[in-house]
Amino acid sequence: MRTNRSTMTRGITGLLAVLLITAAACSPSDRSAQEKAIKDWQAKLDAQWKRLIAQTATPTGSGRNPSVPVAGRPAAPPAGGGSAQGGGSVVSPPKPANLTWSDEFDGSTLDTSVWTPYFNTYGDGNNEMACLTPNNVAISGGTLKITARRENITCPKGSVRKFTSGFIGTRETGKYFARYGHFEMRARLPHGFGLWPAFWLRHRNGAGVAEVDIMEYFHASDPGETKATLHLDGRSNLSKRAIAFEAPTATPGWHIWAVDILPDPAGVKFTFSMDGQAYHSYVDTQHRWTSADQNATWDIAVNLAVGGNWTGDPDDPLGYLAELNRCAQGGTPPNGCRTDGIMRASFPATYEVDYVRYTAA
């Protein structure tokens, strides 16, 4: 699909103009800092769009791929489309005719025959800060809402935390999905330092065997960009790529993140897309992880972490990653870190999901 760069640039520039007008209401010193951050972010995003538009096809697995429609998938709605209507309901894109399974998050309660809401500190391995509770997961207006809150709580096993958030997964209910197919989520993401929303697949024998991060948002290091990452057969960060999705804002728009996992003559091919446009692919030629049941390889996880190694404590100086004692974007820790485009997180912060869909290959 051809991309009208001038139209995109005008849209980005218009949004940034609004942000600059907002910054004008601040004190002179704050306004200067905010204007610089916004302009730095604009230059960064514009450069990424240029790279995406200029890309040409390269060998699969190289990590450089053209921005082209995903074969066989319906076109995505415009970014930010599907605004709330009629008491907060959301207009979803139509289901594809060959859809195998989906949760559209209609009704008023989570389908616990498919999903288990966690009540634990599952993210301790990443030094995440929130206690995950079922109370932070809700269904209303046709969407799933995972909300992070600032509140003191004693979590199971006696851990005391100052934040709560939510995590749902299909593993605990025994709901697994086949090795090959198209996994897709439509959502809007909260922007803020210390927030880490994710949509990912875990291998049935454990994420240490294979993990497919379809969407992770590390606002601290890359405001306005999400990442897709593969961890396969113990090879961490085997292949990854970032994609710009929107300027950091207090009113995020709707976007679609997906992965296609398909057999390939050389192994297993992963193709990641955002809003219907493929932006990264990789062929795994080792694939020892495929020894698991082909018809039940993956479970699905959707969560919103607070804090952690790569996201920072929401209360720390912007850009400072205390667990690693370094700056997310460069600079001198802890108080001299760059803060290009970084927003201070506002609580409660909500990760809202319109649907999760799976289509078998």
Verbal overview:
This protein has 361 residues and is mainly β. It has two domains: 1-54; 74-360, Jelly Rolls, CATH 2.60.120.200. Helix content is 13%, strand content 38%. The protein is built from two helices and 24 strands. The protein has helices at residues 5-24, 28-54; strands at 68-69, 84-85, 89-90, 101-103, 116-117, 130-132, 137-140, 143-154, 160-165, 167-169, 181-188, 195-203, 210-216, 225-232, 235-244, 255-264, 267-274, 277-284, 298-306, 320-321, 326-327, 331-332, 336-337, 349-360. Strands 1, 4, 6, 7, 8, 9, 11, 16, 17, 18 and 24 form an eleven-stranded mixed sheet that branches. The protein has a seven-stranded antiparallel sheet with strand order 5-10-19-12-13-14-15. A two-stranded antiparallel sheet has the order 2-3. The longest helix is centred in the first third of the chain and has 27 residues, at 28-54. The radius of gyration is 20 Å and the shape is globular. Residues 1-31 and 49-88 have low confidence and may be disordered.
Which labels suit this protein?
Jelly Rolls; globular; mainly beta; 11-stranded mixed sheet; 361 residues; 2 domains
End-to-end C-alpha gap: 23 Å
Classify the fold: give the CATH topology of the largest domain.
Jelly Rolls
Structural class: mainly beta
Radius of gyration: 20 Å
Order of helices and strands: HHEEEEEEEEEEEEEEEEEEEEEEEE
Proportion in helices: 10-25%
Number of strand elements? 24
Name the average pLDDT: 84
Helix tally?
Answer: 2
Which consecutive residue ranges, at least 5 long each, have pLDDT under 50?
Answer: 1-31, 49-88
Please tell me the total number of domains.
2
Largest sheet: 11 strands, mixed
Q: Which CATH top level class of the largest domain fits? A: Mainly Beta
Q: What is the overall silhouette?
A: globular
Percent strand: 35-45%
- The CATH architecture of the largest domain would be Sandwich
